[in-house]
Specification:
Length: 426
């Protein structure tokens, strides 16, 4: 759901649905606020001026007519849920609560309940495991409705940290959490029936926008408006920054306006003005280091041409036109960049190998064969030892290096054959 149409992803491609004024089967507005699939597989779409059901067979939409008493209305739909008795509960901004029972022929606002709430401008509704409905208002606090006793109770400041309620969620232990737009996350103390602030280790006030309980990993995820996503540490009873590696941007500054978990346990995040971000449940066995990673952009943007790893875990990375990078097993890097110095590393390192003495040998694109000083990054060139010329000929383009059991170095060139260099005689 976006401010510019509805998007459907089938695992391969996106399909975009938009409003067409002369097509009654298109969505009524491009500003889509809420989506929900009920237990019968019906897919509900809430726009800023009405409600739709998606027809999977015809791949189009049917508008659901809504009424306040007998007056037709086109309300701003803010959230949609299904209750434990299979009623569809809808919150609106300006028309209160709409309840649609399974056999209803027409759909009306619940005027009686709406009139008892703190406001008819609502943001979301949630039914907890005890059957209690929690109905959040835009700026008039949180309403608790007990359908068994027909009682309504209001939580407002100072009994809750903010009257601007943005999200409601429950964990697998029945703990209720409330997100506020101006004062962070709150947890309901079931014994005292009061909401207690959940501290954030960053010691700044969080602007909570969305909540999701991750059933696969038994954790509460908290999306904020400009402070990324946080996770609730149950043991410490506090919020912590969540670590997601290899992201192409700084996730800690993102506006996470929506969080969803699919049937495979993958977490999807709706990022305001950035699109959709997928955090797979099964992490990729490969991690990405490079210029497309915000947190691990430590090896420049040049192509990787060669790699070699020493027994002590040090990784040497030869690049195209950016010299050599040295990286330890914690990701700390040292860059040996090419320069005009005669002992500078080559611009482009096509091949690398380690000899029996632990020396690193480099095969370059234009500068021939070199032995690398692993501390200073200086290179000693051995072109004259193996009759390689100093001009930019095919013999100076070393594409491959290999070492045999006699500690002889075999040198493969691009167009000038193979050379053998006895390392004992260097």
């Amino acid at each position: 759901a976006t401010e510019d149409g509805l998007n459907k992803y089938d695992g391969v491609r996106f399909t975009v649905y938009k409003n067409f004024p002369n097509d009654s089967t298109s969505i009524k507005n491009n500003y889509v606020r809420s989506l929900f699939e009920d237990s019968d597989g019906r897919f509900w779409i809430g726009c800023i001026n009405g409600l739709h059901l998606y027809n999977r067979t015809t791949d189009n939409f049917m508008e659901i007519k809504l009424y306040n008493d007998t007056l037709p209305i086109t309300p701003h739909i803010t959230s949609i849920i299904e209750s434990d008795n299979h009623e569809i509960w809808i919150t609106t901004s300006g028309e209160g609560v709409i309840r649609i029972k399974p056999n209803d022929k027409t759909c009306h606002t619940d005027a009686t309940l709406s009139s008892r709430l703190s406001s008819i401008h609502l943001t979301c509704v949630f039914q907890d495991s005890k059957g209690i409905f929690w109905i959040a208002s835009e700026n008039q606090g949180l309403n608790m409705y007990n359908p068994q006793t027909d009682e309504v109770f209001l939580f407002k400041t100072p009994h809750i940290g903010s009257d601007q309620i943005s999200a409601i969620c429950e964990d697998n232990s029945g703990n209720l959490f409330i997100g506020t737009l101006t004062n962070g996350l709150y947890k309901l103390n079931s014994q005292t029936q009061t909401f207690e602030n959940v501290p954030y280790i960053g010691k700044t006030v969080l602007f909570v926008k969305s909540l999701l309980f991750d059933k696969t990993n038994n954790r509460l995820l908290v999306g904020t408006d400009g402070q990324g996503m946080k996770v609730f540490n149950e043991k410490k009873q506090c919020l912590e920054d969540i670590q997601i590696s290899s992201t192409p941007f700084d996730l800690s500054r993102m506006k996470v306006h929506a969080i969803c978990q699919d049937k495979s346990g993958n977490i999807w995040m709706g990022l305001f003005q950035k699109g959709v971000f997928l955090a797979p449940e099964s992490p990729n066995n490969f991690d990405y280091w490079g210029f497309k990673s915000y947190s691990k952009n430590v090896i420049g943007s040049g192509c990787i041409m060669s790699l070699i790893k020493e027994a002590n875990g040090i990784l040497w990375i030869g690049t195209d036109n950016d010299g050599i990078y040295k990286m330890d097993n914690k990701g700390n890097t040292q860059h040996f960049s090419p320069s005009g110095h005669p002992n500078s590393v080559p611009n482009t390192v096509l091949s690398m190998i380690e000899d029996d003495a632990g020396n690193i040998w480099l095969g370059s694109y234009l500068k021939g064969l070199a032995c690398l000083n692993k501390t200073t990054g200086y290179c000693t060139y051995y072109n004259s030892h193996i009759q390689l010329s100093d001009d930019h000929t095919a013999r100076n383009k070393i594409f491959s290096l290999a070492k045999d059991k006699q500690n002889k170095l075999w040198i493969g060139t691009n167009g000038a054959g193979v050379y053998v260099f006895d390392l004992h005689e260097k």
